[in-house]
User: Fold tRNA-specific 2-thiouridylase MnmA from Streptomyces fradiae ATCC 10745 = DSM 40063.
Amino acid sequence: MTETSPRPLRVLAAMSGGVDSAVAAARAAEAGHDVTGVHLALSANPQSFRTGARGCCTVEDSRDARRAADVIGIPFYVWDLAERFREDVVEDFVAEYEAGRTPNPCLRCNEKIKFAALLDKALALGFDAVCTGHYAKVVTLPDGSRELHRASDTAKDQSYVLGVLDERQLAHAMFPLGDTLTTKDEIRAEAERRGLAVAKKPDSHDICFIADGDTQGFLAARLGRAEGDIVDEAGNRLGGHDGAYGFTIGQRKGLRIGHPAPDGKPRYVLDISPVDNTVTVGPAEALDVTALTAIRPRWCGRAPEGPGTYTAQLRAHGGETEVTAALEGDELRVAFTEPVRGVAPGQAIVLYDGTRVVGSATIATTTRRDRTTAPTA
Assistant:
């Protein structure tokens, strides 16, 4: 759904309580659309989520969203999606770490909550589109199909966490900030001009459902203490841990290894094995990944036919790298032009063709560079 639709639409604006979603709702209303604001209650105990003007999920965020809706002059409601959020995002997050993978809960929330549960409910109630404060663009082609593109301001682009949206969802998505070539300070200045009290509210970050920011403590409380070994590539025990779920591929700090590597260089987490509760560490060059297999592909439009050359993004705030990719059955096979590091099962890989988002998939396995025949980094 393009932001410059020729006819007024019934728009449901998801208002987190932050400045971006408030300005997005205001712009949609100013464009002549019939806008209704909604705040998603995602916790049965909102006090347990982050507080302190984080812009996501707390009681104060709900109040900030309501005040913004009042200033804009649009109806406002709070919808309880706590149970759905717990099942689709929080429990998925815990299960992925338990299995030795590294999930992205914000991407999962966009897929399962904002553009599945919320959109389905909006369409059932007669709304035409869901509006959010994401920085991304939906482009409508002459044949009526839609494409998802990076935001005009690539520094603020959030298309990576929207790479899970399919063509049906894109047809009902509205991102009024996507064409904004302005700084965040200018967005805040616009909010202030509009009389929105959230103009100076800090941005949200980290994981909203982990109140104190202690991911390892959050997981330990749910998965329990599970002592295991930290070993080197040869299987030699270097130390111990309280739960393999507390580590991520590429991690350097907090390994609690009592003695340095023989060459004196830092060691990194190379592998996490939930089967034997073992964490393997080694040198940085052992992290070099040359290829991967990804599952559960989701296409932002028609699925590509045959192998193709794309750029790929592997983290929400990461850069792009050139790849070749091909769909083989239900799996996406990806080869990197140059080795990359910090690639972990559970992460999402998002493919781009220029600024267009082709689609995304969840990394299942990786292939490391053979250091016996290839030079080290």
